[in-house]
Design a protein that fits this description.
By secondary structure, the protein is an alpha+beta fold. The protein contains 12 helices and 18 strands. The protein folds into 2 domains: 279 residues, Aminopeptidase (3-Layer(aba) Sandwich), CATH 3.40.630.10; 114 residues, Alpha-Beta Plaits (2-Layer Sandwich). It binds glyoxylic acid (GLV) and manganese (II) ion (2 copies). The site of one manganese (II) ion has 6 residues, from loops.
Amino acid sequence: MKRILDLAEVGAIPHGGCARLALTDDDRAGRDLVVSWMKELGLEVTIDKVGNVVGTWQIGEGSPVMTGSHIDTVRTGGKYDGNLGVLAGLEVIQTLQESGNAPSRPIAVAFFTNEEGARFAPDMLGSLVYVGGMSVEAALETVSIDGKNFGEELREIGYAGPVPCPGPAPHAFVELHIEQGPVLEAEGITIGCVDGVQGISWTEVEISGQSNHAGTTPMSMRHDPAYVAARITVFLRELAAEMGHPQVCTVGKIDLHPNLINVVAARATMTVDVRNTDEALLREAEQRIDTFLDRLKAEEGVTISKRKLARFEPVQFDPRVIELIDECAADMGLTRKRMPSGAGHDAQMLARVCPTAMIFVPSVRGISHNPAEFTAEEDLIVGSNLLLRVMQRLAAMSFEKVSS
Ligand code: GLV
Ligand code: MN
Ligand code: MN
């Protein structure tokens, strides 16, 4: 708990939140603090070419059982998103060390660069590169929402490390995270045994029209990007309602240019975040949005260009790891349920290279990406103890290679 509160002091914002956007000075300060804790525990710390940091307790034989998450936040983040998974990993190692319970394999804790994707797209960028899903070169060329180059920003904060990517596949990966949704609390359940992550589609949409005088331009003669952006926002809401659960659509960002009271906008740049646990339904949603954009172009006499920022298919976690989490939670007498994750996580990338699953603990009122994000201390502790048990068991498990 002390580490969670101390890390939350770095980049603290009003009402108890954190702003540590990836590769900013506050991200650097957070990284330095967590690395100092890794070193206090005697971990071997490596930094790779995109700034992913892995602290390994070199003990036992073979590839490590890995846990971890991220310590970057959105600009209006809370204390727990990502941070819990990293700091609980340190706590697992410290507890095993102090109790003299040496595992038969190394134990590693990672924090991956730019999980949030709030400053650089795509989200989960660091873990994606770690598993070989994106090249280091492409990652370093990524441009932030404030026009900065990923590679330069990484060097600037001193985390352009020497270790090549992709990184070595762990024996297994398990990530503890707050749910960030309302389900566990609403159902009075302590543990989510996360069986997968929904698919994510992120697009930047730019609408260009005719900027003009707000008083003199007849309504019938306008080509107004602000109006078109509003139509798109309403369409997405209605599309999600029509397709029903679990389809979700969000417009999180709209920028108007020149953004003045008496000027019909020249341009609107907006983001579209579309998610579904079912790939076919996600594609259907994407297609229906494309068709609607074509219709708007014709109706409103604007041009619309699209840029894909992220696209990840839904991910199923490894049934053996999900089952193990369930079993360990049962042994601890905890209430639990299988559930998909609505948010993206580094675990969904690690699932490409090793047996992986996640543990969720409840989020009060389901609030996240908000300073008010809160999980009760007892749930953080119970989740961390479950993580400990699961990691101990994973160290002792052997996973048959499934031939493809
Ligand atoms: C990452 O936090 C996401 O947007 O799911
Ligand atoms: Mn997170
Ligand atoms: Mn997040």
